[in-house]
Amino acid sequence: MKVAAPTSGRVTSRGRSLMAALPLLFGALASAESKPTSTLAEQRATAVTQVVLGILSYARWPVEPEQLRLCLVGPTEYADDLVKGTTQATGRPVVVRRLLAGDPRIANECDAIYLGQLSPDERAQLFSAISGHPVLSISEADDPCTVGSVFCLRVSDRQVAFEVNLDSVARSGVRIHPSVLQLSRRRATQP
Question: Which of 18, 66, 106, 181 is the most exposed, having the fewest neighbouring CB atoms within 10 Å of its CB?
Answer without folding.
Answer: 66
